[in-house]
Amino acid sequence: MDPTTKLTLFLIFFRIACASTVENNFGHCERVVKNWASSSLHQGVNKDKHTLQDLLFFLHVPRTGGRSYYHCFLKKLYPSSQECPRSYDKLRFDPSKSKCRLLATHDDYSMMQKLPKERTSVVTIVRNPVDRVLSSYEFSVEVAARFLVHPNLASATKMSKTVRAKTKGVSTLDIWPWKYLVPWMRGDLFARRDARRQKGLSEVKSNSPYDMEDILMPLHEFIDEPIAHEIIHNGATFQIAGLTNNSYLAESHEIRHCVQEHKSLGQHVLHVAKKRLDDMLYVGLTAEHKESAAMFANVVGAQVISQLKDANFSMDTLADNQSGNSSLHLDSELENNVDQNNNTLDEKATLRKEVETKRENMTATELIEVYEGCISSLLKTQSRRRFASLKKISPANFSKEARRHVSEEVLQQIRTLNYLDLELFKHAQKIFTTRHLQLMGNLDMKDGSESKFDQPRAIELWKTLSLVMLCILLLVLFLFAHARRRVSKVKV
């Protein structure tokens, strides 16, 4: 057999072997993903999804506006003593902790393995995938840029470790996914700064902050990086399905990579994520800000307030729980009004009691007013901090206007990479629209029931209007008939 024939046969056998391996790999992945999906869909959930249960789990999808909900809704509703110690970096609390009623975290849905499912209500917010990816890129750059005050990367890394070791609270660098994205982006910013200094560059070629490669990683490079494929793309679907790289499920890594390798298997993950959205107490939309806030206040807030009234918490228990939980902070109202050094314990207890009474007597309408005032202040603070951070990478400056200059090619690539999140977002929109219409209908019925004392007057008014309309109708008919008779006479 001549060498050419041997090579040809070898290539044929090699292709057959490769095809067989790929087929076997797909078959294995299909079994793993389907088994997980089937098991997930049959897990017991709370049958009454419209009623707030004992524990509220706020599944915070990054860059959806969840921070404003946490500070301006949840912190206004729940006493600090009822908030579970934060769990941004794996489970840090005992679910059986007395009075633990609120868990707000970036941890994914697999957290439910640690929670009493039948006594837990889940809420979340979903955002257009393109906007979420852009925002994730911007926030990674913004936080990483804060470290550029240091002379080099080694100094910045050492400082961040020292600060985190001394701080009892939770740093951004402790929180998923920023604990992966920020250090990675920080290293990239320092590398580009060092390269500019070596070249003696002082001018930036591009006018778009998303394409200033001399200063920061361009957006088109960011979305193609392995870490973006692992964490950012289809992030909402994987988080709601419970399959992030921060998951409690042992098989999550294999399932996630099977889906990344075999795109068609993503439909099984999407189906699970959709079902979980269906079963949630509340699903908000970032873009529908006003309507989402109103729905949260009336669906979630009203039930929390009702629970607080029914529970009748003792102030002694609140004080004991607060003193035993040093990692938590006081409510913002207390932070603004209590001088920790000068006030006596009695004064603090009195003020705390006033805050708790105010919280229990709050209505959904008042809650929305509190939220609007709070978010206005929060956005101003965030804007100032963002401006200070981005000054370190000037002239790069992210804005809504700058986003309009991102090329359609890059935007289309983001859509393609986030095909699961696009479908999940459409499903979330349907849920939101349906529930918003239901809420409006319920509120209209409620308003109607509250004005029953006006019914007799309304009935009399309706009778009068009906009589007037009848008289007008008879008059019109009489005039019409009279006019026809006159026309008939003229014809004759």
Largest β sheet strand count, sense and barrel closure: 4 strands, parallel
Order of helices and strands: HEHEEHHHHHHHHEHHHHHHHHH
Query: How large, in whole angstroms, is the Cα Rg?
Result: 30 Å
The low-pLDDT segments are 313-345, 449-459
Number of helices: 19
Helical content band: 55-70%
Q: How far is the first residue's CA from the last residue's CA?
A: 116 Å
Number of domains: 1
Summing up helix and strand content along with how strands pair, one would put the structural category as mainly alpha
Strand order of the largest sheet: 2-1-3-4
* DSSP summary, beta strand count: 4
Shape assignment: globular
Estimate the mean pLDDT confidence: 81
Q: Could you tell me the strand content as a percent range?
A: under 5%
Tell me what you see in this structure.
This protein has 492 residues and is mainly α. The chain has one domain (23-314, 346-444). Helix content is 63%, strand content 4%. The chain contains 19 helices and 4 strands. It has a 4-stranded parallel β-sheet with strand order 2-1-3-4. Helix 2 (66-77) links the parallel strand 1 (55-59) and strand 2. Helix 8 (235-241) crosses helix 10 (266-278). The longest helix is centred in the N-terminal third of the chain and has 39 residues, at 3-41. It is globular and about 105 Å long. The model is unreliable at 313-345 and 449-459 (pLDDT under 50). One of its GO terms (cellular component) is membrane. Its main location: membrane.
